[in-house]
Amino acid sequence: MDISNIDSMLTQLRAGAALAGGKAGSVGTIASGDETGSEAGRVDFATVFRRSLDQVNNVQQHASKLARDFELGAPEANLTEAMISLQKASISFQYTVQVRNKLVAAYQDIMNMPV
Fold first, then answer.
1. Do 32 and 17 share a domain, yes or no?
2. Under 8 Å between Cβ of 86 and 63
3. What's the pTM?
4. Are both 17 and 63 inside the same structural domain?
5. 56 and 30: one domain?
6. What is one GO cellular-component annotation here (predicted)?
7. Residues 47-92: pLDDT tens digits?
């Protein structure tokens, strides 16, 4: 197995997480808030999750549009671009489903903990 492929994939995932978090530098950092008392530096999980879902939705809509344009025979349609876009949409959806599965499993683990 080639380690450079894993490193590049990890870099892409980190860039996607930074994009979803709305921050270019630090990903998912939460300011302590006790020094200033404000929540200006906090990253809300629901907001990050919503942005990620919106991004997956946008990728899927773009892929559908490219595929539809190719099927209709639009002159600017490109089969290669449509296929790559469809694969990206598929991978992003599979990733989202896996994240959802992990969240559900974590929730169930927390709910099954003895008090």
1. yes
2. yes
3. 0.59
4. no
5. no
6. bacterial-type flagellum basal body
7. 888 999 999 999 999 999 999 999 999 999 899 999 999 999 999 9
